[in-house]
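Ticket opened by: R.M.
Priority: normal
Category: complex prediction / small molecule

The reporter submitted a protein together with heme C and asked that the result be attached to this ticket for the collaborator who will pick it up next week. Submitted input follows.
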Amino acid sequence: MTTKFLLLAAVGAFIFVGNAVPAMAGHTGDPGEPGNAGNGKAVYGETCVFCHGKKGKGEIPGVPDLTKKKGPLVKTDAELFRNISDGFESPGSAMAMPARGGNPDLTESDIHDVVAYMREAFQKR
Ligand code: HEC
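Result attached by the on-call engineer:
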């Protein structure tokens, strides 16, 4: 009697583990398009929240309520972008807004994104 060994060969299992990159929502670098509010939220949480608060109402005296109907967010994207980049002080203000919220690492695209986030999260229309 001979023992027969069945060799199981995994033939035909051609699995292509290739470049299966899921399609991400793109178009964030385009200057004409709205910023990426998801990244903006992260930027806000790292740099802006200490003064402006989680809900955008302002944590310390002199910080404006971003949720007010006729508050700072009625300004254009370009104006907000400039004031966040360069810093901002309104006449008679108790405290100035530091350039880039005091975080020199913020990129232009981060600022673009955080404007989109503030509009989405705080702006009353
Ligand atoms: C150290 C505290 C502080 C931090 C950090 C800070 N802000 Fe401000 N921000 C202020 C103050 C104070 C004002 C109001 C200044 C004034 O009116 O004189 C202000 C004003 C603003 C305004 C209104 C500007 C306008 O044109 O009326 C926006 C928008 C704003 N901040 C966004 C941000 C964003 C985005 C960040 C994070 C990248 C940030 N701030 C970080 C203190 C801060």
